[in-house]
Write the C-alpha cells for this entry.
Amino acid sequence: MSNINLLPWRDGVRAGQQKQFLAWLGGAALATLAAMLVINLWVHQHIARQQERNQLLQTETARLDLVLGEIRHIQEQRARLMELMLLIDSFQQRRNFSVRLFNQLPELVPPGVYLSSVNVADNRVDVVGKAEAYARVAAMIRHIEGSGWLMEPRISSIFASDAEPVALSQFSMLFRVNETIAGAMR
C-alpha cells in the first residue's frame, strides 16, 4: 500500500476541475455577453421608438403652430371686424341725432334767444348765441333740463354787448346728451 501514488490522479482531477471551471466561466461570460447584447438591442429599439414618437410630436407641434398662427390671424381679423361693426353701429345710432336735435331746438329756444352756432362733438353740444335778457337764457336752461334726453346745461360765458340798435347779451352754453335715453330713442 505504500506504493500507491495518488499525485497523478489528484493532478488529473484538479486539471479536470480547472477545465470544468474554465468551461463554466466561458459559458457565464458568453451568457453575460448574450444578455448584454439582447438588453442593448432592446434599449436601442426603445430609443428608436421614442425618437419616432418625438418626431411625430415635433411634426404635430409644427402643424399646430401653423393652426394657432391662422387662429391668431382670424382673431385679429375678427377684432378689426368687431371694431368696424361697433363704429357702424355708433354711426347708425347717431345718424338721427342731428335731425332730432334740430327738430327740438325750436322748442328748447325761447323767443328772444338767437343762436349763431351749434357744435356737436360726441355727446356734448356747444351753443353760442345772443339773448334779449338773461331770463331768456335761464328759460332755455330749464327747457334743456326738462327735455329728458339733454342734461347738465352750463353757461360758459354771458356778457352784455353794446351793439346798436338793440343791446343783446352774448352767451355760450354747453350741455350733454344722455346717451342711455338718446340711444333708446334713436
